[in-house]
Amino acid sequence: MSDYFLPFLKGFLLMGSLIFAVGPQNAMLIRHGLRRDHPFLIASIFTLCDLLLVTLGVVGVGQWVAKSPGLHAVIAYGGAAFLFWFAGKAFYAAWRGGQSLGQAEVARRGTLAATAFAISLLNPGALIDTLVIVGSVSSKYPLGGALAFGLGAQFFSAAFFFLVAAFTRNFAPALNNAAVWRAIDVAVGLITMGIGLHLLFFEF
After folding, report:
1. Mean predicted confidence (pLDDT) in 157-166
2. What is the pLDDT of residues 87-124, one digit of tens each?
3. Which residues contact 6 (CB under 8 A, 6 or more apart)?
């Protein structure tokens, strides 16, 4: 039993240390949760994408990615371009202003789902966390332990996303004014742009 529980617990704690940083996924979920704009749909997509990426990392894809300079370059420049585009959208929304949380335009389900998939699968931070870091650490265990490690990481990821979706959706009425909404957009833009710049100049 301990052969599987200890890797599960370590995977759970490792994902916890990685996911608490406010990256593009968390920023998008908080933003749309406060708008009551399909936060559980977004949480479901983030969970599904993490399940895919963690699984690929556990079976060894992450180690292959880590050893490929070409793939590193694709992740760096393509991912940074996506993050800058996402930051630009947030800054434009902040500049436009004039909306409360209740008045904010609700995105179409299809557009929202496509953005959620893109921000998971094109986000270099998520790829590094799940494919490379989780995958590399899980490789220290035999197959059963590695699968338990990945399951622990995935369990934390799913619980975290759905708790954030529920919390922000219920907290929305307390933040229903245009100034708070503008501040949220500025914060999302700054965080996302900072991650993109850090990726370009320090990670690769």
Report:
1. 91
2. 887 788 778 865 555 545 556 788 889 989 988 887 77
3. none
Closest CA to 104 of 186, 167, 176: 176
Decide if 12 contacts 151 (C-beta within 8 A).
Answer: no
Return the closest-CA partner of residue 125 out of 201, 42, 196.
196
pLDDT of residue 17: 61
Q: For the purposes of burial, counting CB atoms within 10 Å of the CB of 167, is it exposed (0-12), middle (13-18) or buried (19 or more)?
A: middle
Task: Report how far residue 57's alpha carbon sits from residue 128's, in angstroms, rounded to the nearest whole number.
Answer: 10
Q: Is the dihedral of CA 34, 39, 40, 42 positive or negative?
A: negative
pTM of structure? 0.73
Q: Read off φ and ψ for residue 129, nearest 5 degrees.
A: -60, -45
Measured at the alpha carbon of residue 124, what is the angle toward residues 97 and 137, in degrees to the nearest 5? Answer: 135
Question: How far is 141 from 44, CA to CA, in rounded Å?
Answer: 29
